[in-house]
Amino acid sequence: MAEERTHADVAVLGCGNMGSTLARRWADAGKSVVVWNRSAARAEALRGPNIEVAQSAQAAIETADVAVAVLATYDTVRQVLDSVHKLDGKTFVNLTTGVQDEVDSISELCDAKGGSYLDGAIFVYPHQIGRPESTLLYAGPEEVWARHRNLLQMLGGNTRYISNRLDLVNVLDTGVIGSFYHSAMTAFVETAAYVLGTGISPDTLAQATKPVVDMISESVDEALEAVRSSNYDTDQATMSNIATAMRHFGDAIERSGYTNRVLKAATSHANDAEAAGMGSKSYHAMIDLLMRPRPQQGASAGHSGGLPQ
Fold first, then answer.
1. Top-level CATH class of 178-291?
2. Neighbour order of strands in the sheet with 91-94
3. Domain 10-165 architecture
4. pLDDT tens figures, 36-85
5. Residues of the chain with CATH 3.40.50.720
6. Where is the NADPH-dependent reductive aminase-like C-terminal domain (predicted)?
7. Tens digit of each residue's pLDDT (9 = 90 or more) over 5-34
8. Which residues pair with 117 in a beta bridge?
9. Distance CA 80, CA 74 (A)
């Protein structure tokens, strides 16, 4: 077996689809990379120009100034860090999908082992890594981000530092990817089943859907402006207008024998807003309703709904 590299620009811990893509991206950009994976075959498959394989997580971390973890869960990250004797001034970047209340324990573990910590989230799929519009978000000490920003920005043109508050990245990942993106895609899946099931072609569905995707982007801007101004008045469609239409659409889909779960959930929210006296307001007023304090349900555990790694 070839001798392991004595120094690399970056260590990648985890060689699943995303970790492998990150390693190749950096290697293709001329960076020296060392990779490690619990299942050695996945790591060995990456061996090549600018990519060496470490036999342990400790060896990978010792080889590079920055280690990037792209593992299955935060529990896996914790297990890997527990196996590492020390970080000795290294930076540990965690791109594993997690939730808000999991971050501090990883940061504290890195600190105890003498390392710095950045928490991150990847808002794209592996094939989108490296594109100008691809988004990755980071949080942690700003001076640590500044030290590694050039390396990290190679992964996407819309790579951003958010805050020194570590949990904010996971809040955004859980909300934007976990809740918004996955719910929107599930709504589209249900839509496609209904529309295509009636005999309409995929091309026709695409022509009808893509302008609506653009409309969603505009509606997001309008909703956030309404929140900023605390003004939910409208001269467009009112909450009651929309709720009535949603009930009508839902009934039509059910009569056709197709699944309607996402629209049912949305209709339930609209019904609640009407019951709260918001019928004459814009649909965005629902944000104000849902932000009102509710009984705490307890801490979440396990994966958030982030994009699969």
1. mainly alpha
2. 51-53, 33-36, 10-13, 66-69, 91-94, 116-122, 136-139, 160-163
3. 3-Layer(aba) Sandwich (3.40)
4. 999 999 999 999 999 999 999 999 999 999 999 999 999 999 999 999 99
5. 10-165
6. 180-290
7. 579 999 999 999 999 999 999 999 999 999
8. 92
9. 10
